[in-house]
Write a structure and sequence with these properties.
By secondary structure, the protein is mainly beta. The chain contains 2 helices and 8 strands. The chain folds into 2 domains: 80 residues, Electron Transport, Fmn-binding Protein, Chain A (Pnp Oxidase, Chain A); 35 residues, no CATH class. It has a 6-stranded antiparallel β-barrel. A two-stranded antiparallel sheet has the order 7-8. The longest helix has 9 residues.
Length: 136
């Protein structure tokens, strides 16, 4: 369960994305959002788009992913301040073991030449195991 108490600790988690659908079965919308406050299980974010109250949403960061329901959405100067009640039982920040690898993006692979050097013991880190780099 994620229990962050300050915005500073959230900022180190990288960018956050909010996903939602305005109609059940409709196309998904997605955008980067700013985290303003997080008091488990309530999150307050800033969004460029309006999201209606009672809309199910999915919030994802580098070390966080969770589902929630929009409680309120208020227009402010150049965007909207959205309050989301997150289902923290669904959230994860623990180890990535046991998750479906289909949800990850592959950042980079070794080239065949790099692989051959490593296998021959000529690589810069001989004996070190290399593989795909996974990021949430």
């Amino acid at each position: 369960m994620v229990k962050c108490t300050s915005v500073a600790s959230l900022e180190t988690s990288g960018p956050f994305r909010l996903r939602w659908s305005e109609q059940k079965g409709g196309s998904l919308r997605e955008e980067l959002v700013d985290i303003l406050e997080e008091h488990v299980p309530q999150w307050i974010i800033r969004s460029a788009r309006e999201v209606n109250a009672n809309t199910p949403v999915h919030l994802t960061g580098e070390n966080y992913s969770g589902d929630g329901i929009v409680q309120s959405c208020k227009q402010e100067n150049f965007g909207f301040v959205i309050t989301i009640f997150m289902n923290e039982n669904e959230a994860f920040a623990e180890s990535k073991a046991g998750r479906d690898p289909g949800v990850f993006a592959i950042e980079e692979f070794l080239t065949e030449e790099e692989e051959a050097k490593i296998l021959e013991g000529q690589g810069p880190h001989s004996g070190q195991s290399y593989g795909p780099v996974w990021r949430v």
